[in-house]
């Protein structure tokens, strides 16, 4: 009976504990969906976990948000209780950190038994005197490492069933914490997306403006509105004295006021890199240690001395001419770090870009007036934002005037373009070519030989018959020596035959001697003819000028002295003294019809200039078309056109054969419109001409 009466009491205690735990779970679940700060939520979570599990202490670890963080980078987000990681020192702290890295890598909840005195820093262990229950906190299951860990130090002597129950409860708490972090991240991303859209819209409005003054005013107004600041000033520091060019929601600026002096003084602060910008805190206020984010934004400060004094100054880079000076107050609504810094960065870059574009338009004569005709005014411009009481009828009237002005401008532009398209302009066809003389004597090696001596240099004047070069052939010399030896032997044989005829009077012996003598004479005659051919070949190896002219052979000595040549190899060239000069121009096929029409109508003229000269000081006359050859630059087919020069090209006293030239063909006049579309028309005719 006593045991029976005790069971209801223990059962009621169990039910009461279950109700308390259920209530704690409900409280944590409700807190996970409330808009709380991160530190406040983790403080609440640690308190409820410690109450529910009756542990000795709770430590919540989180991983930095950087993408390159590892399993060993977990830091304490919040700790509560009498037994926490703060009691760990030296090797025990490293061993405990190794344990956290192991649990984070495995990603499963565990209860680690105590191992007091563990000192091997590369072996994961629990150096505390109490068992530690550790569960991961995940936002995205696909990530390799969890975003955080919850560690609870339990009582000693717990059973396996109690440890499993503790792990189940702790895993439920980690799921709720992950849900809180997930919702918080989604909220941040939503805020960042909304802020990005609003910044893009503001920058788009800035780029639609064509006046630098309007851009400056709209720039600071947009900064004050998007950053939720009471005042923003824009300064330009390209001169020795910083100049205030715009202040948000202020029409006129008193440059001599105390506030203006404070703004100019703020621009002199030393800027330090921060979040991709260069930032300086003008009030030197310490950042709050319990802020919601890891780092503070420019608007975060515990004490703001005065809303009329600048709080911070920021620039896109230290060499930028623009400085944004911000004013904050106690009522300033704080934005998240990503939204604040991202908005500042995009405003600085986009505003400077819009101002530079408008400045370029203003620097063009009449550019501001022309741009105002073409650009439709923004219905959400700065003036409209300032004065929300403007009636819809006035806005419609402005829009109608803008559309009429835009239509009239486009009509006038089309008329002007039509007139310009029909205006005649000179039809010029620039081509390339080669200048060469008509009478050019090129001397070749008559047979395989070696250059024995050279008697002229490049550019030297020669007369007809002057010695140019002497070539020697060892083969001809050997043949001549062999033939001369054979000729001497045959001459002795002929003498012997003659003596035999004189010493033998018989008819039979005389007939035999006469026959032998004839064979010898024929062979001697053959050798004589061969020797004459060899002497002629040797004479041809001695090169002499065929006419008066100038030698065209650059680096003659270096190229040919004592060099063996094959039969037909070039030795040197001589340009005739009174030769005519021509240009072989390469005309692209796309311009061939234009050039041919001008040639047939006898209106084609040409100016020729050397490739290195900017002057077209030579006049040429078209003669005829030549073959189709590939262009040496890009390989496209072109037609050779020969042009005769009225006077020879000169460069001192040196010859200029095979010289690159620039040729401008004057083909009369053509409409401006045809000049711009003729290539498109030609391409269409080539591609689709077979279908029509």
From TrEMBL:
Task: Name the segments for region: Disordered.
Answer: 283-310
Q: Which InterPro entries match?
A: MFP_Cation_Efflux
Q: Name one GO cellular component term.
A: cell envelope
Record carries keyword Lipoprotein: no
User: What's in the keyword line of the UniProt record?
Assistant: Membrane, Transmembrane, Transmembrane helix, Transport
Residue ranges crossing the lipid bilayer per the database entry: 407-429
One GO biological-process annotation of the entry reads: copper ion export
Q: Does the keyword Cell wall biogenesis/degradation apply?
A: no
The identity of this protein, by name, is Uncharacterized protein
Give the source species: Rhodopirellula baltica SH28
């Amino acid at each position: 009976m006593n045991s029976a009466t005790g069971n209801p009491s223990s059962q009621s205690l169990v039910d009461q504990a279950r109700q308390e735990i259920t209530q704690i779970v409900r409280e944590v679940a409700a807190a996970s969906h409330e808009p709380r700060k991160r530190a406040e939520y983790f403080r609440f979570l640690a308190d409820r976990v410690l109450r529910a599990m009756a542990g000795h202490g709770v430590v919540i670890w989180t991983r930095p948000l950087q993408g390159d963080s590892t399993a060993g980078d977990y830091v304490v987000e919040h700790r509560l209780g009498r037994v926490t990681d703060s009691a760990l020192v030296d090797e025990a702290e490293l061993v405990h950190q190794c344990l956290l890295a192991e649990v984070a890598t495995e990603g499963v909840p565990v209860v680690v038994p105590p191992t007091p005195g563990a000192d091997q820093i590369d072996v994961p262990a629990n150096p505390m005197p109490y068992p530690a229950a550790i569960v991961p906190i995940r936002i995205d299951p696909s990530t390799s490492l969890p975003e955080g860990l919850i560690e609870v130090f339990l009582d000693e002597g717990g059973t396996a069933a109690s440890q499993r129950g503790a792990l189940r409860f702790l895993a439920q708490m980690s799921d709720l914490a992950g849900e809180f972090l997930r919702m918080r991240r989604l909220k941040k991303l939503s805020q960042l997306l909304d802020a990005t859209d609003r910044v893009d819209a503001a920058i788009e409005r800035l780029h639609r403006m064509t006046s630098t003054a309007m851009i400056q005013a709209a720039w600071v107004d947009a900064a004050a509105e998007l950053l939720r600041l009471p005042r923003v000033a824009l300064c330009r520091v390209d001169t020795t004295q910083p100049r205030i060019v715009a202040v948000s929601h202020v029409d006129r600026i008193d440059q001599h006021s105390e506030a203006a002096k404070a703004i100019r003084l703020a621009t002199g602060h030393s800027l330090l890199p921060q979040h991709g910008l260069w930032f300086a805190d003008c009030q030197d206020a310490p950042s709050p240690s319990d802020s919601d984010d890891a780092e503070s934004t420019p608007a975060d400060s515990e004490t703001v001395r005065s809303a009329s004094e600048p709080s911070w100054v920021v620039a896109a880079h230290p060499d930028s001419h623009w400085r944004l000076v911000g004013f904050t107050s106690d009522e300033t609504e704080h934005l998240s770090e990503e939204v604040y810094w991202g908005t500042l960065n995009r405003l600085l870059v986009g505003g400077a870009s819009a101002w530079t574009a408008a400045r370029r338009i203003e620097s063009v004569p009449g550019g501001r007036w022309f741009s105002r005709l073409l650009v439709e005014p923004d219905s959400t411009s700065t003036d409209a934002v300032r004065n929300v009481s403007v009636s819809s009828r006035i806005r419609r009237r402005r829009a109608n005037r803008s559309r009429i002005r835009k239509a009239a401008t486009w009509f006038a532009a089309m008329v002007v373009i039509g007139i310009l398209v029909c205006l005649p302009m000179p039809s010029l066809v620039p081509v390339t070519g080669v200048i060469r003389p008509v009478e050019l004597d090129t001397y070749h090696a008559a047979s395989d030989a070696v250059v024995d001596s050279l008697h002229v240099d490049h550019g030297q004047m020669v007369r007809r018959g002057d010695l140019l070069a002497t070539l020697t052939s060892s083969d001809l010399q050997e043949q001549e020596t062999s033939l001369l030896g054979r000729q001497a032997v045959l001459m002795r044989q002929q003498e012997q035959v003659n003596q035999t005829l004189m010493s033998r009077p018989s008819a039979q012996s005389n007939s035999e001697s006469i026959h032998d003598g004839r064979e010898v004479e024929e062979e001697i005659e053959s050798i004589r003819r061969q020797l004459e051919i060899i002497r002629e070949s040797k004479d041809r190896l001695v090169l002499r000028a065929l006419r008066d002219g100038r030698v065209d052979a650059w680096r003659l000595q270096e190229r040919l002295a004592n060099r063996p040549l094959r039969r037909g190899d070039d030795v040197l060239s001589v340009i005739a003294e009174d030769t005519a000069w021509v240009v072989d121009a390469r005309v692209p096929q796309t311009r061939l019809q234009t050039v041919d029409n001008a040639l047939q109508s006898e209106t084609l003229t040409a100016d020729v200039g050397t490739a290195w000269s900017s002057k077209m000081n030579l006049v040429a006359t078209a003669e005829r078309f030549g073959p189709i050859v590939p262009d040496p630059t890009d390989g496209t087919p072109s037609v050779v056109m020969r042009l005769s020069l009225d006077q020879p090209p000169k460069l001192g006293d040196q010859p200029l054969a095979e010289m690159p030239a620039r040729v401008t063909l004057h083909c009369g006049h053509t409409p401006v419109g045809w000049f711009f579309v003729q290539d498109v028309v030609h391409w269409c005719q080539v591609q689709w001409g077979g279908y029509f």
